[in-house]
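pinging the channel bc i need a second pair of eyes. not urgent but kinda urgent?? the chain im working w is below, pasted from the shared doc
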Amino acid sequence: MTKKVFILIVPVIWLTVISSVKAQATYKLTVPELFEKGLEYSLSIKSSELKVQISGDRLALAKNKLLPDIQVVGQFGYVGTSTILDRDLSFMKHPEAPDWRQNYQVVATQPLYQGGRIKGNIEKSELDEEVARLSLEKDKSGLKLWLVGKYLDLYDLYRQQDVYQHNIKEAGKRLQDIRKMREEGMITTNDVLRSEIQLSNYELLLKESRNNIILVSQQLAIVMAMDEDLLFEPDSTFLQEKEDMTVTLEEYIQSAYENYPDIKISRTNIDLARNNMKLTKADLLPALSLQFGNTFQRPIPNTSPVQDYYLNSWGLTLNLSYRISSLFDRKHSLSSAKTQINLQELAEDQQKQNIRTSVKAAYLKHQEALDKVKVLEHSLKQADENYRIVHKKYFNQLSILTDLLDANTVQLNAELQLTAARTNVIYTYYQLLEISGKL
């Protein structure tokens, strides 16, 4: 009964896998296309680009402060009838006056000296734009690393699929031989059942790998704004590319000091703190501006009786202002600005310390991944040889089925571990590139 159920279930599982393969089209995806489409359509990158655009607009606004400030004012309104009262508040008369008032002004103010406030604000906006640009650069590097990770996951899953398909094929052949031995009375039914269970487990693992391929493909498709039903197939030549092994640890650290976005942001924050010191000092200085105005109004003000005529007047004014209260804030304002500079300098030193440890960790992990591949390549050869020996001994009735199934499991795990180790070599290398500012 169990045998019949197994014969019915396994084909159903296999046909389900095959049908899912045929239902979704495959797309050969290269790494350059992966980066290109990912950077172009990623929502996080678009958000960072908008932040750069906003900082650029703010810089343009800061530069506009160098230009004259021009204001145009227009007033037009009804004037009520005035009443003149005597000193005892008794009514005297209603003087004649126009019913409508008009006042039109044009005022242009050109700043001459602001103690460095305007130039300081322009420099601050330039530094803010630089921080936004460096944040965009960091986001792009992080996205590339994420894309490579998913791309390598796909490669690993396709290799798992191949390994499971191969083992399913071999397990099927082995099961046929075991059934013949059972019919000849050489072994018990227990060996047949355990072999059937192992084959069924391989089928389920194959299905699981296939589902994971679908899920990872969907994740990449969403980021790249492509059809979510596509199954992406990675370029196997990507793993054959040889990385530059001549670069030393200190060279990677030096590269990180020069190129890693977080270090650049720390340096820019120091410049921002120094700029804040300039602005603080500028607040302690007077402001000087030149103002030109022209007024066209009706009636003529400040005349008695009111004269219903148009009056056009203009004037040129030199304005000098100084905020006396700034003298009381001087000590604490300058101390706070200086402390902010020291704080940002300490942050840069701390960032350098973190980078040294991060680069060294990534470098050692990459070397470890390379060594692991060599060990697992040798382990796979041993597992293959062990399986060959145990397989031969079992069918010569010199070992039990447990030994054969264990040898097969060891062989399968060795293949999967080697595949994962090879992809990990590439991923740790890209981690090293990312932390050193080269990605």
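so Residues 258-285+332-439 form a domain with the Outer membrane efflux proteins (OEP) fold (CATH 1.20.1600.10). and The chain is about 65% helix and 15% strand. — does that match what u expected or am i reading it wrong
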